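Sanity check

After download, print the first record. It should look like this:
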Amino acid sequence: MTNTPPDALLALTDVNTFYGQAQVHFDLSISVPRGHIVCLLGGNASGKSTTMKIILGLVKPRSGDVTFDGASLLGLTTPQIVRRGIASVPEARRLFADMSVRENILMGAFVRDDREAIAQDLDKMLTLFPKLGQRLSQRAGSLSGGEQQMVAMARALMSRPRMIVMDEPTMGLSPLYVDRVLELIRTINQEGVSVFMVEQNASLALEIAHEAYVLQTGKIVLFGSARALKDDPRIRDAYLGGSEAA
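Expected structure tokens:
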């Protein structure tokens, strides 16, 4: 079995995943060092979203292990995983559309009972995401895509996570909001939160990541520093190959 790097906060080790008889992952091994931004790249049907579901306890691999800070996450429920220190920004935001922006943000603190600190963290979110301060009483479903993504990020941070996992954080956003979301991911990381992001847009993800993996039909075909991969012609071939195989 692959050894987990000593500085890894999150590690997937030799993971094999199936949906029925169809194998999705083949000895998948990924690690996220403490304090780093790591992105998982790949085309449609490469296994990216299933990777995210495994981390959050929504899908159980047939073999292999998933550890966070040295302890296995296998068998834990999603709320238990959140309590361990992992928060999620899911694909398409998945807000409670009929609830207010304030209510959606506070949903992120469901694992906490320190009311005074929760109120302080809400104020902190409005400093980090100032536009949301103007929208607190507005229905979340009435916001633009970019504003909804900010609500989803603020909601995740309200659990005071050590790591945020993000599924396609720039999908469907205007260019202006894409730049803003990437800037916010970098800011969150600089404040000490590790980030694992699944992303289809390789060029964007490699701008802010420390390391990157390229997933193609369930197998890691490339890994390295984001800076090196950004200029590596092999990433284009692997990435396009993953898209064509989807």
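If your output differs, re-run the checksum step. Summary of this record's structure: The domain at 8-85+163-245 is CATH 3.40.50.300 (Rossmann fold).
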